[in-house]
Structure formats: structure tokens, C-alpha cells
Amino acid sequence: MAPHREGSEASVEAMVAQVEKHPISTILIIIAMQTEALPVVNKFQLIENPHSSFPKGVPWIHYHGAYKDITINLIWPGKDLTFGVDSVGTISASLVTYASIQALQPDLIINAGTAGGFKEKGAAIGDVFLVSHVAFHDRRIPIPTYSTPNLLKALNLKTGKLSTGDSLDMSPHDEASIAANDATVKDMEGAAVAYVAELLKVPAIFVKAVTDIVDGEKPTAEEFLQNLAAVTATLEEVVTQVIDFISGKCLPEL
Ligand code: ADE
């Protein structure tokens, strides 16, 4: 159970401390694209919840299941009702994060997905990053993230800062802001998930797999599509390793 926000600040802190002493039992995985989500759904044999508590008519899909001692919830924001494409970007990410925390009270959020990487910062196609810091590149407010040094060490992942905006491409303004954020990876949801998670005091971690090199020669959309299938397979493997590591542990052990 995640902490509720009633009562004095002291009682909230006491509840957080209490939660941190118990093994993680409920996780919420947020994945924006169907292609990214389905390998994880299949791996853990998650099933769609036809009675999710989401408002009637929204395209958001709730998959759930049990793995070891963990209840896994995976939310895919579904297809945009007007355009029929995946509901990527910060607006859907914020909404589903908010609604899912309210409905599911997770102990931990994992935002997993693909990202563009900067080769100048050491990113290569297929790398998977456990993100150390999150920021928006079109909104200059930094957001704290939950530190997971043991997870990082155990999985031997790369780490770097993530910058989030609502576009796959990169305008000159975005480029300056991403450089100011010192980002190694760039996505379209992470900072939105981080913002809502921070607001509701649920720890969140970010697992981002590189499909395209932003400061490389190839056109982003082309390179993204070329690498999507292989990289999402890698992403599923790393998400599985993360969940295996989490199993049986309390938050401070991550
Ligand atoms: N997801 C995958 N590649 C991306 C990029 N270059 N920018 C934003 N999100 C991405």
C-alpha cells in the first residue's frame, strides 16, 4: 500500500517509514506504446482487467497478474480515440499515472519504455538506462527521483539523466534545454510520471532503452522504427530482471 495523505505531516512520515519496512508487494508499470508493453504482458502472462476503475470510455488498459510475491499492474494508455495511434506523451502519462495510483495504491512505479540517446553522453542503440535524474525540456522544473544504487549495481545497467518533452524530434530550443538538463536519454513520458509520483509520494524508477541516437546521422523516426522490435525485446528482459531483483525486498534495499 502506498501512503495516504491524510493526517499530520508526522503521521504521513510514520506511514512512509512503515511502508518502507515491508517487502514491495504491488507495483505499477507504466508503458506508453503497445509494442513496448506486449512483451512484458506476455512474459508475465498478465491479463487485461475488463473491470478497471478507470472512467468509462477512456482507452487506458489495465493488465494485471501475480509473479512470485508481487502483484504486477501494467497500464498502457491505449490508442488515441481520435487518431488511433498510441497515446504517447506527457498528458496521457500524467493522467494514467494519477488514476492508477489512486486505483491501485502501488508501492513502487516503474516507467519503462524506449528513448532517444545521445552518443556524446555515451548512449548506444540497445543500451538500457536506469535513470538517475528526470527533467522536462519544455518546462524548467527539476523533479527528484527515487535512488536505487543496489539495483543499478546488481543489474550492471548504464545510468544517466533523462529529459522529457512531447515530441519525438528535437527543436533547437529543446536541444539547448536538454543540454542544460545534462541528459543522456530523451523520452516523452518520464518526467510526467515523475511529477505525479512525486505529488502523490510514490517512489518511481525509470528504465529506458535506446532505439535511436539523437545526435547521430540517421533520421530519428526511421532509426526508431528500425530498432523498435529488437530494443523492446531487450527492454522486456531488463524489466524482468528489475522485477526479479525487487521481489522480496523493501524499498530501502533497492
Ligand atoms: N522514444 C524513442 N526515441 C525517442 C526520441 N528520440 N525522443 C523522444 N522519445 C523517444
Outline the structure in words:
This protein has about 250 residues and is an alpha/beta fold. The chain has one domain: Rossmann fold. Helices cover about 35% and strands about 25% of the residues. It has a five-stranded mixed β-barrel with strand order 5-8-7-6-9. The longest helix has 27 residues. The site of adenine (ADE) has 12 residues, from strand 5, strand 8, strand 9 and helix 7.
Brief overview:
This protein has 254 residues and is α/β, with parallel strands linked by helices.
Q: CATH H-level name... which superfamily?
A: Nucleoside phosphorylase domain
Bound molecules: adenine
* CATH class value: Alpha Beta
Main pleated sheet: 5 strands, mixed, barrel
Per CATH, which architecture? 3-Layer(aba) Sandwich
Mean pLDDT: 92
Pfam family, one: PNP_UDP_1
GO molecular function: methylthioadenosine nucleosidase activity
Protein name: Nucleoside phosphorylase domain-containing protein
Domain Nucleoside phosphorylase: 26-243
